[in-house]
Design brief:
By secondary structure, the protein is an alpha+beta fold. Helices cover 34% and strands 21% of the residues. The protein contains six helices and nine strands, in the order E-E-E-E-E-H-E-E-E-H-H-H-E-H-H. The strands form three sheets. A five-stranded mixed sheet has the order 5-9-8-7-6. Strands 1-2 form a two-stranded antiparallel sheet. A two-stranded antiparallel sheet has the order 3-4. Strand 1 and strand 2 form a beta hairpin. The radius of gyration is 24 Å and the shape is elongated. The chain starts with a strand and ends with a helix.
Length: 154
C-alpha cells in the first residue's frame, strides 16, 4: 500500500521484528534549484543542509517576515544558529522539510567544523585559548568576591 506525501509517493512501512522502518524518497536539490524558490508562491530556505518550504510559515514567523524573506532561496544556517533558536523552533521546521541539498553542494556540517583546526595565532604568538569575554567575566567575578570578603569586613 502506498501513501501520497507531497509530490512523492511513499512506499508502505516495512515491519521488521517489532520495529517499523519507513522507506522514504527524499528530494535532492541543487543550490540553483533552491535559489529559484523566491516568489510569493514558493519560498525555500536551507538550514543544516535541509531544504524547507516556508511559504505558508513566513507570515507566522515570530521574528517577522523580513528575516525569512532575506534568506529565501539561500542557506540560512548561520543566521538561524546565531539567533539561538530553541529546540521547539527546530521542531517547527520538521513538517516544512521538502528535501536536502545535494551532497556535492553541501556547506560544511557542524561535525566538520568541530574537526577543523583552529586558525594560526597572529604573528606566530601562542594562543592561550582565553577569549576576551571570558577574561572580563573572570575579572568581574574576582572583583565581586573581593568586595564581599574585604568590603563587607570594613
Amino acid at each position: 500500500q502506498r501513501r501520497v506525501h507531497g509530490d512523492f509517493v511513499r512506499p508502505a512501512p516495512i515491519t521488521m521484528s517489532k520495529h517499523v522502518v519507513e522507506k522514504s524518497t527524499t528530494k535532492v536539490f541543487t543550490l540553483a534549484e533552491v535559489a529559484e524558490h523566491v516568489t510569493d508562491k514558493s519560498k525555500f530556505i536551507i538550514v543544516d543542509n535541509k531544504v524547507y518550504d516556508v511559504t505558508e510559515f513566513v507570515n507566522e514567523h515570530p521574528g517577522g517576515v523580513e528575516v525569512v524573506v532575506e534568506y529565501q532561496g539561500k542557506d540560512a544556517t548561520t543566521a538561524f544558529d546565531d539567533v539561538g533558536h530553541s529546540s521547539d523552533a527546530r521542531e517547527m521546521l520538521v513538517p516544512l522539510q521538502v528535501g536536502v541539498v545535494a551532497e556535492t553542494e553541501r556547506a560544511n556540517s557542524k561535525k566538520d567544523a568541530k574537526k577543523s583546526v583552529a586558525p594560526a595565532p597572529v604573528n606566530g604568538a601562542p594562543s592561550s585559548g582565553w577569549s576576551p569575554l571570558l577574561i572580563v567575566a573572570l575579572l568581574a567575578l574576582i572583583a565581586g568576591v573581593g568586595y564581599k570578603v574585604f568590603g563587607a569586613s570594613h
